[in-house]
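From the shared-data thread, chain only:
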Amino acid sequence: MSAPTPKEIRACFQEYRDAWREIRDEAAEDMKAISPGGPWSDEDREARKGSGRPCIHLDQLNQFLAQVNGNMRKAKRAVQATPKGNGANDQDAKKRSAAIMATEERSNAQPIYLNAFQSMVERSYGFAVIRTDYEDESSFDQEILIKPIVNPDMVLLNPYFKQPDASDITEAFLLDTISKKQFKQKYPSARITDFDDVDTSEEGISDWLKDKYVQVAEFWKVSTKLKTLLLVETEQGVNVYSEDEWKQAKEAGARGSVKRDRKVEIPKVTQYMTNGLEILDEVPWAGSRIPIISCLGPERWTTEGGTAKRQLLSMVRFARDPQLLFDYLASSECEVAGKIPKIPFVGAKGQFESDKETWDELTKVPHAYAQYDIVLDNGGNPVPPPTYSDFTPNFQEWEVAKDSVGRSIQAAMGISPLPDAAQRRNQKSGVALEKMDDMESLGSFQFVDRYENGFLHNMGWQINELITPILDTQREIPVSKPDGTRSTMQLVGNTSHPLNDQGAYDVQGLEEDHLHTGKGEFDVTISTGPSYQSEREEQDEFIDSLIENIANLPQPGTPSAKVLALGIRMRPTLGPIGQQIADVFDPPDPSNLPPQAQAVVQQLQGQLQQLQQENATLLADRAGRVLEQQTKIQLQQMKGQNEQAIQQMQNDIKVLVSEISAKAQDSAQRAQMYETFWKENHGAAHDYALQKDQQSHVAEQQQLAQQAAQQQQTTQIGADQQAAQNQPQGASQ
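Structure, as tokens:
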């Protein structure tokens, strides 16, 4: 399809601007109501100022808007990928979710999301835009970025969309206004850079050219191309081909018969840069939707003159009139306060002359008395003394009226009154406090729903679609883990690792935990949860409470422990820490584990048995070494004792020989000496022999004890192995 002409673009701009005029006018009134001046019209304000009457604005709306926006900031929304088909699985879906979150973190997307939500709440529409850009000047790797649109009136959509999130728009404008000098510098190759000679009388040109400025726009357009799909039965089974793909397959030798065919529309998105006079640039977009993401308020359809008309609502829309009434009452109350007499005392002329100083300061300085001069009337009678002007303004009635209007403002915005600190202290029940919070959010739920299921879902869907064509080269990206820690994840895609006919690719040299961005089809969902900070606070509070009552906690595996674990798992705000605590009290059933996990458990069991055998062998060897060492020590001690006994015997013999040589004794005396020597030394020799026998017996007993210990260890190992073999398949140790 050919590119649109500048005249066609100008015609679209005028048509769409007129269609959105009433919606934008209402949005302008909404913004005026929450601005410092309030909802007063310019005519009323000038009339009151001209007549000297007060024109008061006491803001009642922004506190409720801040409440809704604050609740949205407390609970962080996350885009999660889900497997859809074509080989997608849960593991890849988690990795793809991490890649989406990495894009959000790289773009600092949360403030951008909240800015769009705030615009919707305040004026009924807000926007953001998705961009793609190269990572740096020297790289061919592109990245996906989310950019804000601060002024939502710079977006002009085709008004004929049917989806609540406007994801099906076929044309859209993203406008910008720059000076003519800037335009010439930014677009030096433009056909028209000097606008002095341009005929602004031509239809629509005056919308684009101002005195010193030029309106430049991104004009996004979706064109469609018909494509024929064929359901072909081949030798490998039934497959789906496009008409061109099947033609190429037959040329390559494929055989099969076409069972069905149908026509499908293939969208093609193009961005045209224009100034209303010419096309400055034409850039194809990788996605199938226009990347301007709309956050639109609740829709209302009315019929005027037989024509249906769309209205987009904000939270401010129905509260504008109550706010104006509140300001009118406040201004009227101010007028009543202005009627309070400024001259408190009134008297006849001449009554204040003698004590003038006292009367002048009587309303400011206390005095015990004040004297007045007696003045006679025409009849010669004294006039009454000075009187006090008693005026009681009806402020109470005005306050009652303002309180009634305040409730009307709350009803119009769908928000319950904010409880004060005293009311919250009086509510002892946590359920009561929770109901207060629920009541505060019910009125704004329709806006939250449009934000989550419209804006965020469209945003996540388009980012997920762009991951395949944009993140198609090998690289590493930073990701956040569920526990809040940071890591990196390796990406590969169709460019770096193309898929074959079976959907496989070369994984050599890749990390095991990588993601192929071109493998599988995925959809997205939106999950809601507390912010990381509030989640950490709740975790800390829960852990403190758990530690305080740790002595009273049930034993793991008991019914009470399982109930406690179930309660912990029902609190998703505890995050991964809570799941780990729940597993302590109620360990997962090994029989319910997936096959891959069961294989890991069996492998660990085998390793545990091997370690037990090695440990038993080491214990037996250690016991033998200890026994051997103890035997050596005892033998060494006994050897020392024997050497002392032998030395003593040798000394005794030497003494005896000396005595025999020194004395010339007769044979009887020598016989007596021999007898005495024999008795004494024979006893020592006998004791020595007994000690040697005892040493041999001790060594033999120690050897028998060592053999018995080794036999006991071998018997225990066999019993452990038999018990492990009898244990059910997949049971944990």
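The longest helix spans residues 595-662.
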